[in-house]
Amino acid sequence: MSKKEEFKIFAKTHPELVSSIRAGNTSWQQLYEIYDIYGEDNRAWKNYLNKDNSPTSINNFTDIVKKIDMDSVQKHINTAQKALGLVQELTSKTPSTVTPKTNLNPRPINKFFED
What we know:
This protein is an all-alpha fold. It is built from five helices and no strands. The protein starts with a helix and ends in a 23-residue tail after the last helix.
């Protein structure tokens, strides 16, 4: 088995590496070079295989919350409220506001166009 295949297996068993890459802390090339030089069992991996890089970490959650644009959220909420108000207004009107035509005479079945 080649070193590259061994690294792929190592990376699959440690999903924290993907989190570190997505966070912009490192790249696949850098991780492979560390693996190539030090192997699997070394202190070099402590920066990448700790709990702080996991997607469920409180630090990552607070970073996500900090990146939310509250003005944009408020605009979307206002738009949704307006849409719901319009739907509510349209559905709350009673059919009595529409006046039916009373002078409708049905055509005979056998009469076509202006025969």
